[in-house]
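ping. complex inputs:
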Amino acid sequence: MMKVGIISFAHMHAQSYAECFKILEEQGGNVNLVAIADADEERGRNAATRFDCTYFRDYQDLLATDVDAVVVCSENVLHAEMVIAAAEARKHVLCEKPLATTVGDARRMIAASERAGIILQVAFPVRFNSAIQRLQKMVVSEELGRIIAIRGTNRGKNPDGWFVDQSLSGGGAVLDHTVHVVDLMRWMLRSEVKEVFAEVDTRFHSIDVDDCGLLLLEFENGVFASHDPSWSRPKMYPTWGDVTLEVVGTNGVSVVDAFAQHLTDFGDTALPIQHAFWGNSMDLGLIRDFVDCVTSGRSPFITGMDGLQAVAVALAAYESARTGKPIPLAQMG
Amino acid sequence: MWKVAVVGAGTMGTVHAQAYVNMGNVDLVGIVDIRQSVAEGLAARSGTQAYTSLAELLNETDVDIVDICVPTYLHKEYVLQVARKKKHVICEKPIARSLEDAQAMINACEEAGVSLFIGHVVRFFPEYCLARDRLQSGTIGCVGTVRTSRGGEFPTAWEDWYADIDKSGSVIVDAMIHDFDFLRWCFGDVKRVYAKSTVGRDFPRVDHAFVSLRFENGIIGHAEGTWAYPDGFRTQLEIAGDQGLLLHDSDAAAPIQNYRRSSGVANAGVAVPESPLEKNPYQLELEHFLDCLMHNTELRITPLDAYKALEISLAALESIRTGQPVELGGVE
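pong. complex structure:
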């Protein structure tokens, strides 16, 4: 039986991942969520009670137990220290995105996991969205012909809290919402980003981090792309945000809205129009895959290097906006 | 009655001629096209005379306004010819293929004392006008980002001139210029442009472009232009403010979707959307021009507007060529 702990519920995805572990347990899966660590005692104890776990204030105490694996959902800047500590304690790790807030940290995390021989997987759940998976197969099988260009969006509402505190998040919308879609593009194209140009600004909210931007990307294989990572959805937008991709190939175009599988719910509530998603749970796909990696010992589907590359592109976008120039990814070291 | 002639009996010449036929105050005096049968065909459908040269029409008729619907790279020679005869000019967008040509056309019309109206028809599309009205009423607050998309299948025309970038300027000069003009109308001048497209990448008769725009007022814009779809045509507009969001999607807004069985009908088997209006935007645009001439009022699109929209398109092409962002100077 694989025993799992979750380190920190700072990121809201921790709730969803914990629910996914519970679903797998109920389905008779070979996994058991047993421990939760959170420096925020109230938040941690509440989660521990809800998910029937042992609570630890200090994540090092959780790492001292016999859990096989941990999910790290702390504030972005804490990922490096926690993942490295987990690796040193020989625990397999699923780390919330972005993997790190610097490329150097990401490298140290990958090196630590390799030294310890543990699995380091990055939480890019959108790879498990059914429509995105179908698109990836179309691209890889060349159903669309030779790929010419991709237009991406991953917009959201202002997530607030520590997300808008640079000292904890390491960046705003551009870091938060670039990594998912860059990961999808890299995955489908099987090619790395060569160069990034970006406009970045704070124009929607009174916050100290960026809340909007636009990236133009060139891939090594000659595909060009654009991406909009802005927190530009108003408070009353009927869902949290979007992930969309338009893939242009020589045989045609595929336009994908990853969350189009929804009912539209019109009510008299504070949010009068809501999109109620009925597609497959991508978080469950991610957690199931992580459990399968750990229990079968196979290599993860999404690696630490995938996490690093996505972070490097987001950081290059900031560098481009700062200098006004396109930034070659080689410079991001 | 205004005596109007249309030069160029292609797609846009046909749309304009039909609009003039619908208008009560226009006498369509002739259709010019160097292809005699094409000129005769449209002239017959429009109840007017066919000519195979503009000079012939200018000599034989007492025309007030000449409407130039020829390929972009030919605009200058035709507009200059009309201006020399001191006739008012309507000219399809883009104003020209180069800023030098555009300036020569503007100068010639100014010197001749005739009006020059460039057909940036998006300023007459009701969905775009409504978006601008709402924007100006302030309901969405201060704008942060704006996105446009325009395109569909690769256009087919005389001598396949759209496929020659020296003649058409690619989708960036031919189609995206509509959005650049509309965005300037809403948000003012653009400060910086960075772009990527299929230009220089060897995809014959497939054209796709992304243009990053930074406006003087700080707004971040993204324009997409495509002639890479196998069929259809669609437009999208998204304006995100700090208090709201405006969305337009022509696919979603078409009130009629036709699904026809294949029995020799054009586009059989393909869903064909229709969005009927009492008057199409082309007719509204042409009526506006005649109204401005009649009452000596300001044109919704000045020649300088058309020049500046072209400047944005050409900056995008330069960015693609150099791989660097292009700063737009305050060209007057």
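The mean pLDDT of chain A is 97.
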